[in-house]
Amino acid sequence: MHTLRYSPTADSLGRDTVTVTYAALGIADQIWMPQKGLILIDSSLDPVARHSSLAHMLAHLDLGHRVHDAGTAAGREHVLRQEVAADTLVAGRLVYVDDIVAALLVHGSDASTLAYALGVSVSTLANRMRSLAPAEWDRIRLAGPPITWPAELPAAPRCLIGEVSAAWAPGVRLRTTRVPAVVDLPLSGPLRQRVAWTCQAVG
Predict the structure, then answer these.
(1) What is the sign, positive or negative, of the torsion defined by CA atoms of 183, 53, 89, 153?
(2) CB 3.0–4.6 Å: which of 9, 101, 133, 191 could bond 187 by disulfide?
């Protein structure tokens, strides 16, 4: 169903200053280390999650995000804004309105089924729906009944930006101290979820 028009893998391979490594991270699902030009993706993620995680970290790079600092309330708010901006960019790159309309006509309105057909996570589909322009909303409304969402979205990937430390991956040497462990992005209407932050000191 979904013709991939944006490939984060091809995008990363076309960037001479970025290295992508897949490893067993444990404490985070995805890490962007700007000073090293290094993106780390947890190798235990399923293929769709790895695909989305790489797209997410490239979005942070393109948006100029260079650090996550959750040590203060202002810092947490700043990180949340960064995450929303990155998720919105990723959703626009990976999910096209033409594809949503076609999937609705073929697969019906269940969000999980639609996301599977589109090759993305339910959260990515939700982020795309959240950022639709009015004309795009009209096209989707005409395609069928409203999309049926699960009562609760899956947990957001654990995302970290910065020069970090501790042995999170075999053969990968990292350096720093405090990291946001979980970011749960808020969505409007029935998709609204509580924003929950956890900080953990490391090595």
Answers:
(1) negative
(2) 191
Neighbouring CB atoms inside 10 A of 86's CB total 25
**Please, which pLDDT band fits residue 164 given cuts at 50, 70 and 90?**
low
Pull the structure tokens for residue 165.
């430390």
Q: Give per-residue pLDDT as tens, 24-80.
A: 887 789 999 898 899 999 999 999 999 999 999 999 999 999 887 767 778 888 888
What's the rounded Cα separation, in Å, for the pair 28 and 181? 7
